[in-house]
Amino acid sequence: GLFLGRSLVLSGQYDVVLCVGFEEMDGGLSEPFQDKASPTARQFDFMYNELGIKKGKIAPKMNDFTSDIIKLFSEAGQEYCKKHGVSEGIFAEIAAKNRLHGQQNENAMLASKKPPPTAEQIAAQPRLFGCLTSGMAAPTGDGAAAVVLVSERWV
């Protein structure tokens, strides 16, 4: 994707590269290609074997992979806070900012006429795992994006 496109432009082989990506969700997060190596296996192995996080669903209606991803992001968030000396409240602030910005976009998944939740309200929502509350998690949905990379020569 993007890394390959960048490499092609930097090599001088191409002046313009279009990178396209898409994701189609199927009832939550999943790994649909069971015949291929998991892109998250290394992180999950570390989380379970080195950090001692227990395997299993964090909510009855959640599939195993979604639960694992939430645990992974929570652990990464806690590591970030420790490394940079910031409070876990920063994630509630980011979620509140995202909801505020999304409210300005009529096509946003969580578009609403109601005022968006504050950081304090998001932080007070039920915990999913570790430092993450339900208000910090993004709902699953299909999506796509594209970016055009160009060389200095082309500009």
In angstroms, what is the radius of gyration? 19 Å
Q: Could you tell me the mean pLDDT? A: 91
What is the beta-strand fraction?
5-15%
Task: Report the biggest beta sheet as strand number plus sense, adding barrel if it closes.
Answer: 2 strands, antiparallel
Neighbour order of strands in the largest sheet: 1-4
**How many beta-strand segments?**
4
Shape: globular
| Order of helix and strand elements from N to C terminus | HEHHHHEEE
Distance between the termini: 21 Å
Structural class: alpha+beta
Low-confidence blocks of residues: none
Provide a count of the helices: 5
Helical amount among residues, as a percent range? Answer: 25-40%
Output the keywords.
single chain; 155 residues; alpha+beta; two-stranded antiparallel sheet; 39% helix
Q: Would you write up a description of this structure?
A:
The structure is a single chain. The longest helix is centred in the middle third of the chain and has 21 residues, at 64-84. 39% of the residues lie in helices and 14% in strands. The strands form two sheets. The protein has a two-stranded antiparallel sheet with strand order 1-4. The two termini are 21 Å apart. The chain contains five helices and four strands, in the order αβααααβββ. The chain has 155 residues and is an alpha+beta fold.
